[in-house]
Design goal:
Blueprint lengths: L3 E10 L4 E7 L6 E7 L4 E7 L2 E7 L2 E5 L2 E4 L3
Antiparallel strand pairs: 1-4, 1-6, 2-3, 2-5, 6-7
Length: 73
């Protein structure tokens, strides 16, 4: 069973067509999952044993335990 780290991020799309891409851990970083969000949609993502990074394209607001981030307009 994989370890759950408890690290979550909340991503809110501020425009249509936002792309969220999960990247793998390990020797070679690879895409392993992607999602599209439209304006107002929210995704809650979690870092796991398999997910080491999340790449976001588009205008979003991101909430983490470290604070709130908003992309430039």
């Amino acid at each position: 069973m994989w370890e759950i780290t408890g690290e979550y991020v909340v991503i809110k799309a501020l425009e249509n067509g936002v792309t969220i891409i999960g990247l793998t851990r390990g020797r070679d970083t690879k895409f392993h999952h992607s999602e599209k969000l439209d304006k107002g949609e929210i995704m809650i993502a979690q870092f796991t044993e398999h997910t080491s990074a999340i790449k976001i394209r588009g205008r979003v607001e991101v909430l983490t335990r470290h604070g709130r981030l908003k992309t430039d307009e």
